[in-house]
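Per reviewer request, we include the raw input and output of the structure prediction for the construct analysed in the revised manuscript.
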Amino acid sequence: MIRAFLTALIASLATNASAEIFRCEGDTPSWRLDLTGDNATLQMIERLDLKLTQSTTAEGRDWPRAFTLESKRDTTIALIELGRCRTSRGVGPLRAHVMTQSGDAPILLTGCCWPVQ
């Protein structure tokens, strides 16, 4: 039953790739990314408010989706792809990879995303 639900959800996401409202999170370290149209917030140790400056997909495909997010001092790239994953919140229908930095140190975060409607 859960498998059928996730399969239907992923199929609907694949046909509605324009939906760019996601809640993403991961556990190690704990982080959360809320992507809401033209704006985003990344919460790790502190909250970072970001603007969506670019969105793209793989050549000739709807997925994966890449988002370039910028603030006055930071740039963050979020890559969201179809595929189940697990966090402490549960099983998500989308995998997330978020590349950002803390000062000069690069950080790669992994986790799950859920579409928000």
